[in-house]
Every structure is written in C-alpha cells, then in structure tokens.
Specification:
Elements lengths: L1 E7 L2 E6 L9 E10 L2 H7 L10 E2 L3 E8 L6 E4 L2 E2 L5 H4 L10 E2 L11 E5 L3 E3 L6 H5 L1 H15 L10 E5 L3 H12 L4 E5 L3 H11 L2 E3 L1 H4 L7 E6 L4 H10 E9 L11 H6 L3 E4 L5 H13 L8 E5 L3 H9 L7 E5 L1
Parallel strand pairs: 11-12, 11-14, 12-13, 14-15, 15-16, 17-18
Antiparallel strand pairs: 1-2, 1-4, 3-5, 3-9, 3-18, 5-6, 6-10, 7-8
Helix pairs in contact: 4-5, 4-10
Length: 330
C-alpha cells in the first residue's frame, strides 16, 4: 500500500509500506480522508519524543471498515486505544486511561491506504455524512470537550460571557464556530498568520485580530480565554486577559513548559483548566454536531491527495496556506 511516512525531522515520504493485517479484536479500515493535526506537525518538527521515525502519522481519519465488526460501514475512530477497565475508563473519562495507546503515535496511523485499530475505538457515523465532515470529528471533539469542561466552571451562562480564543488553527476555529452555535455574542479570535486570520474571519463571523500588530484586549476583561496554541506568549496573554473569577481553558501544547503569573492566578481566583483530547461521548457528540451543521459548511477545510502530503506539511510549516485544516485523501 501507499503511505506517507514520517522519516526524519522536517521530512515525510510518500512510499510503499506493508499492508496491515487486523489482529483479533481489531478492524481494518480503508482510509477515505485523514486530517493533518497540530500534533502531527509537532512530530514533523522533531519535537515529540513519543513519535519516533519511521512512523505513519495521522489520527484524524474516516473510512470504510473492510474487516471486523461493522464491515461495509463508513466510520471514524477514536485514535486512543484504551483498556476499558481502569477507573477512568469506567467513569467514561477514557481520555485519561493510563494504559492508552494511540494510532499515529505508538502504532501506525492513518496517512495510508489502510489502517488497523481496536474495534472498540470505532465511532459510527451517519452513512450519508460527508467525508470532509467525518474527517473533522476528532478535532471537533476536542473543541466540544474543552468548552463543555469550561462551562462547568463559569459563573454565568456561556452566551453572557466575553470569550477570547487564542489561535486560528483547527481547534481554535472549531471552538469559535461551536461557541457561535451555542449562542455566544462576544467572541474574539487572535491569530498571527494573516492568511489564517482572513480565513477565520470569513468562516466564523467573530471579531478577529492580529495580537502582534494590534495588541491584546484590555487586561482582566475576559470571562473565558481558550488557549488553543499553548505557547509561552499565549499562556501569558491568557492570564493577562482573563478577569477575576474567570476561566482559562488550556488546550494547545506548542511549548512543554513556561512560567505563568501565579500571583494573578491566586489573587484573582482564576480557574486554570488543562484539557486533553476528548472522551468517546465527545466524539459521538461531535459527529452529531458536524452532521447537523453546527460547525458551518467547512468551506475553510482544504483537501489534497495523500501523494502530495509532503508539500502539505511544508506549506503548513512555512505558513503558506490559509487553511486551518488540510485533509489528505488516499
């Protein structure tokens, strides 16, 4: 089969790879579309010690089940393969499973003609769901999970809150779109890339600005800040912008560690929440929301052939594309 393989830092190679065989309890899927995630870019840059070359990346996928339960049906997957028996799995918080593995990280991922995964990780989709929408399930679920967790800590209902989203990549853009579908009236999105900034403005209808050229919102003025970047600068910006008693939702992981203003966090009683991926229930909710149009028409998503994946990675690396999400089609 053909696959796009991470072979070295800043290098992915389109080449022949052995076709995988499904083990007992697994399914084999013919991939129809696979999105390039920010974590794939992190690996591409050589910054993720959990993803070692040679490795087939890609975990945002949809396709047809060729072998195993559900054979013949279109589906997406939870890229996390969890044990199902630990305390977190039993609580429905399977994203925290201490025994989890992951396609595109600890085993071959979806940038290929075929991929295998645990049958228990399959997420059913409406059979008439568009390929593009189905391929967005995983990042959409990340936004669903983060916003739902944040809402538990907000003092006032979400539509009343002033909200700042840092980052106009897929997660930030999907978060802004979901917030609008929830009826929020005051959402602002910060993005440094001019191409993405224009795309985000068209796609979301929220106020979009360049934090480098235009500065930040007034300090201590925002009830909810969503950091979809996770860089030192965005963490500092989030803590500066959030108002006393507000919430900072931290999703992105660009930088592993950095100092933050712990004095303000303490004296202003800020709630700082880290969130990791999604539970299976969030993936199912994301499928429904995407199919019902809660995230809009997804016209901002760019599709390219898997054979052109190396160029897609280069374009993302160099900031040459307006697309917050590039989906590769095997």
């Amino acid at each position: 089969m053909k696959a796009l393989v991470y072979t070295a830092a800043n290098e992915v190679t389109y080449r022949d790879e052995p076709e995988p065989a499904a083990a007992p309890g697994e399914v084999k899927i013919r991939a129809d579309a696979v999105g390039i995630c920010g974590s794939d870019m992190h690996a591409y840059h050589g910054h993720d010690p959990r993803r070692n070359p040679p490795l087939i990346l890609g975990h945002e996928l949809t396709g047809e089940i060729l072998e195993g339960p559900g054979k013949g049906r279109r589906a997406t997957v939870n890229p996390l393969i969890t044990c199902g028996s630990c305390e977190y799995c039993k609580q429905g918080r399977d994203n925290l499973c201490a025994n989890r593995t992951m396609i595109g990280m600890t085993r071959a991922g979806g940038f290929a003609d075929y991929v295998t995964t645990a049958a228990a990780s399959v997420i059913d989709i409406p059979q008439d769901m568009s390929v593009r929408a189905a391929a967005l399930t995983e990042p959409a679920a990340t936004a669903v999970h983060a916003i739902n967790v944040a809402m538990r800590s907000l003092v006032r209902p979400l539509p009343e809150c002033r909200i700042l989203v840092l980052g106009g990549g897929a997660i930030g853009l999907l978060a802004a779109l979901l917030l609008r579908s929830y009826g929020t009236r005051h959402v602002t999105l910060a993005e440094t890339n001019a191409l993405r900034r224009a795309s985000a403005a068209r796609a979301t209808g929220v106020a979009v600005y360049d934090p480098v050229a235009q500065g930040a919102p007034a300090d201590s003025s925002i009830e909810l800040v969503i950091d979809a970047v996770g860089a030192k600068a965005t963490r500092n910006a989030a803590l500066a912008a959030v108002k006393p008693g507000g919430v900072v939702m931290h999703i992105g992981l660009m930088h592993w560690a950095s100092e933050i203003d712990m004095r303000k966090l303490t004296l202003a009683e800020i709630t700082l929440i880290g969130t990791y991926t999604y539970a299976t229930s969030d993936l199912r909710a994301a499928v429904a929301a995407l199919h019902e149009g809660a995230f809009g028409n997804l016209a901002w998503v760019e599709e390219r052939p898997l054979s052109e994946g190396a160029q897609a990675f280069r374009d993302l690396h160099e900031g040459r594309t307006a697309a917050a999400k590039i989906v590769l089609r095997p």
